[in-house]
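Exercise 7b. Backbone tokens:
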């Protein structure tokens, strides 16, 4: 029988190199056996834009860089490798001394991105560059999905507050915390996730559950007890029984709490026709002298429902969203890849049907229109220049930071500016048009040459 305290709880999912796929270790053994130590260029990109996504928002770079700076295999993992009868002692020795020594260029978090464009470029000895693939995709794909979902929600409910309520519905504790981070950088007001508040200093929001109200024989006694215990957290859940009746009773309770120095902040509605309930509750609160109370709603919301409530002009101040956000439920994965673009200075290109890509190290240049909105991108070789701003920035050189990464507040500011630069057609929730992306003649020429010589072509022209 497996011990209760198994090794899963002891694995450092933030830094362990063994949070990987077997084929990474297979290739690592083979690279080293063949004496292949040349420099490789890999790039992470999205192959095609998903349905009903006019844009994507890059996220997860901070966690990737933290992983690369601290990537390791601890002694227990080394012992497992040596005793597994699967791997060589040479592999164990290599992993025991592993340090990432390569370069990283990346699109800053919060940046709007599109298909076929490099998001992160890794330039490193081939074994290092290959080994980090699994975790790189983990960090970048997931947070990009959630940040994009959150950005769509922000656009669907302009001027409203939105809070992440999704930790309990996330696929793991780690994913729940990282989802809260991705949503906050995209513009959310805060999160209900305590570890996200602790680790990322994201504002915490929370009320009470229906079970709390149900444990009391009278819901007003539940409200009173909650207010006395949490006088700074006075947002009350109204729909355990009858929503409007609870609002009337709260109006009666408010003066008594006020005498005790407790000022009420808001109410939450979690079921039913949220637009209808919010209108009725708003009137009850306003007529009862509680016009300052915010109305918070939750309960299975996504961007389409937010857009509907916005169109219906529901008097809602704050939305709590959970499952649809942290699972990116209508788009749980991206068709993305981390692919070899060059080895030892020679461009490489995969030609598999439906999975080809632009060869060599690449860069993206973004142009704006006269109103400051994004107007088009140009993909070039990394050594080319083009009009506009180069999106990939240097992050690591020889395994060390070029400069400190921006804090979450700065990323959030950048993301807001990026959303403000979106053309209106790309903000649509459905039926979004294609964004104009061109490719430099030199890069096209290199790609054409590799159709006939796929095993290598000098990158000097690009």
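Sequence design result:
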């Amino acid at each position: 029988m497996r011990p209760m305290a198994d090794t899963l709880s002891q694995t450092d999912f933030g830094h362990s190199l063994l949070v990987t796929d077997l084929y990474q270790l297979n290739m690592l053994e083979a690279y080293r056996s063949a004496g292949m130590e040349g420099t490789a260029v890999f790039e992470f990109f999205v192959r095609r834009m998903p349905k009903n996504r006019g844009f994507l928002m890059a996220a997860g770079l901070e966690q990737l860089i933290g992983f690369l700076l601290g990537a390791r295999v601890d002694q227990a993992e080394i012992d497992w490798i040596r005793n597994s009868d699967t791997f060589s002692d040479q592999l164990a020795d290599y992993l025991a001394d592993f340090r990432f020594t390569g370069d990283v260029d990346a699109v800053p978090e919060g940046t709007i991105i599109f298909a076929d464009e490099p998001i992160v470029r890794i330039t490193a000895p081939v074994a290092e560059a290959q080994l980090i693939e699994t975790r790189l995709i983990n960090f970048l794909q997931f947070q990009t999905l959630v940040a994009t979902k959150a950005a769509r929600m922000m656009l669907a409910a302009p001027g409203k507050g939105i809070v992440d309520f999704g930790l309990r519905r996330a696929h793991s504790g780690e994913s729940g915390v990282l989802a809260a981070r991705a949503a906050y950088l995209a513009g959310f007001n805060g999160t209900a996730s305590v570890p996200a508040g602790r680790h990322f200093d994201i504002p915490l929001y929370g009320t009470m559950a229906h079970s709390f109200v149900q444990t009391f024989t009278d819901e007003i006694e539940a409200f009173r007890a909650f207010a006395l215990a949490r006088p700074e957290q006075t947002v009350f859940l109204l729909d355990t029984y009858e929503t409007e009746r609870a609002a009337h009773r709260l109006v009666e309770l408010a003066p008594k709490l006020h005498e005790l120095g407790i000022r009420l902040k808001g109410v939450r509605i979690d079921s039913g026709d949220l637009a209808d309930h919010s209108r009725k509750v708003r009137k009850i609160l306003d007529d009862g002298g509680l016009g300052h109370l915010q109305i918070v709603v939750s309960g299975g919301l996504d961007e389409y429902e937010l857009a509907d409530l916005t169109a219906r002009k529901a008097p809602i101040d704050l939305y709590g969203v959970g499952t649809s956000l942290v699972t990116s439920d209508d788009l749980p994965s991206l068709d993305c890849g981390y692919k070899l673009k060059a080895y030892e200075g020679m461009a490489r290109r995969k030609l598999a049907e439906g999975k080809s890509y632009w060869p060599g190290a690449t860069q993206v240049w973004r142009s704006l229109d006269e109103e400051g909105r994004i107007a088009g991108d140009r993909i070039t070789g990394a050594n080319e220049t083009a009009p506009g701003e180069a999106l990939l920035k240097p992050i690591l050189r020889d395994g060390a930071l070029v400069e400190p990464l921006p804090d979450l507040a700065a990323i959030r500011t950048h993301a807001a500016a990026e959303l403000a630069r979106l053309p209106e057609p790309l903000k649509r929730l459905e039926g979004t048009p294609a964004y104009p992306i061109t490719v430099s003649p030199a890069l096209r020429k290199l790609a054409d040459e590799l159709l006939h010589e796929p095993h290598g072509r000098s990158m000097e022209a690009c």
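Instructor comment: The CA atoms of residues 73 and 95 lie 6 Å apart. The domain at 39-67+101-146+334-458 is CATH 3.20.140.10 (nicotinate phosphoribosyltransferase).
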